[in-house]
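I'm stuck. Please check this protein.
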Amino acid sequence: MSLEHLTHKLKESFDSHEYQQAVQLLPKIQVLLLENSLLIPNFSKLEDSQYLSDLLISRSILEIGALSAINCDELDKFEHLVLQLWSFYFNQVNHHQLSKSGKKNKILALYLLRLLSKGDVVKFHSELEFLQGHIKNIDSDLYLNYPIKIENWVLEGYYDKAIESIKNTESEEKLKLKEFNVFNNTLLETIRFEISRSMEKSYTSLPLSNAKYLLFLNSEKEVESWAGEQGWDVERGVLQFEKLQASSSLFQDNNEEDEEDENITPSERLVKNTLNYAKEIDSII
């Protein structure tokens, strides 16, 4: 089949939400793009108006492929396509007559969210620093602001705000870009993992009823299941962290926390404040 025919089928599949079919068509199209020097922009041909027009089509194909891969939960393929799009978004092509892409910030926002969901904070900050140098007013962009604010809240220990935002599927950015929701579960797990590490450092034991609030889980049964994944001991409805702390140089007695309150991390402070809140709720109940 010709490149024109395949491209038409790709767009048709994407518009019909047949994302798996779109993903399956993509490799054949990429081969033809490569053969025509359109998968990677040829800088020596950028003065050719027809070539620039063809590059626009190539960029659109890769963007459709990236969004289709997200919807099929093929996240490694999505990352690979973003790397291919990088050369269209951030090189000499942009200094010529290649018009701006309406999908650019959406795809880059999804890419940052993918890095967060993997817990790859180092790469997240590296890519964000690059984007801040190439995109104006990045913090005010509806799409790019979403992963940025999630990461900021997690970094500062405001897990409740991050989780509330992740769980809210009716927010403005998610109504306009439903693909954000693909990362909800993995983001929640990543945040719970961070909270869990703070819990291990801060407490020798913790009732399941309180841990439920700290981990933003719905029941004590869910806490027990999470505890099993973390290798925590559960005795008579109480999480036990002594064994973990005994083998860690970060061990601190709970009594020392109050004395060193100014030195605790934002994560540990949230754990402490949330625990107090949980205790208050229990006393009311």
User: Anything to note?
Assistant: Confidence is low (pLDDT under 50) at residues 249-260, 277-285. Residues 1-100 form a domain with the Serine Threonine Protein Phosphatase 5, Tetratricopeptide repeat fold (CATH 1.25.40.990). Strands lie at 205-207, 233-235, 238-240.
